[in-house]
Design brief:
By secondary structure, the chain is of the alpha/beta class. The chain has eleven helices and eight strands. The protein has a single domain, classed as Alpha/Beta hydrolase fold, catalytic domain (Rossmann fold). Strands 1-2-4-3-5-6-7-8 form an eight-stranded mixed sheet, with helices on both faces.
Amino acid sequence: MSLIGHYFTLRQHFARFVEPGLPANLTRWALPGHDQHGLAMQLSGAFAHASERELVVVLHGLGGSIQSRYMARALHAALARGVSCLLLNARGAGDSSGNIAHAGLIEDLEHALAAESLRSYERVYLFGYSMGGHVALRYASHDPDPRVKSVVALCSPLDLAANMRAFDQALVNPYRPYVLGGLAAQFARYSQGGRAPISVERARRIRRIFDWDRDVIAPVFGFESPWAYYEQCSAANTLDRLRVPALYVGAKHDPMIPYDTVSGALERDKGKLSVVWADSGGHLAFPARFSLGGPAQSSLEAQCLSWLQHPTRV
């Protein structure tokens, strides 16, 4: 992996301080429900109305929330195209309460799309960043709501075991503290319910994704081991079952989702999945004039929204 991937990724991290954030007039969205143990929880998010017929649901990455700055980019792109937008917090993120989430947890997306407040929409699109894209692809490979018409995943892992190895074994990884710090913060809220398998102090000392999956995800969700979790929940294993057109957009020098951890799975699929690679860029960070195939006259998010509305093979 070249240094260019780190450059783009870190440049975007600092650019968030000058990018526009979420507008103040968003509608708070909340939906009560129950976790896998039958205990009460609540999903949360932010909603912006622009259409009576079309809705895009935007999913954030691991350790993030709707406050992650890239979510604002998707929101602004949706509104510019006249599409209503729901920014959805994963379980345990932001104001979502109750349990914590894992990379294959599609049940909350199912629950959200069944909400009374969203039933009037005729066309629904899923737009996922990083781990959010993994959830969206996995959801679209099972029994998606018939209103879901297309999916876009940006810089998403596909093989959870391969990505774990790459993330944990990198000699220099400035992203581990950021991701694991976000997960530990979510875990601290979850632990207040008295059901956490380890202490908050121990969770904060975790330095590898594998340890997080072994000590937290596996016991909380009943997986026999992290390896069982990876096998059962990796989107790579179900891409050939996609029910709707999907687009995967990645950067070949992404330092968080390395090319060789996803390329094999993408090469195997020849069905409903289109793939576009950026020769430059980093994690969720692309050159200004990067194009999905046509003239790059707009932002990547705007191009993705256009593709979601009119999916074609790329």
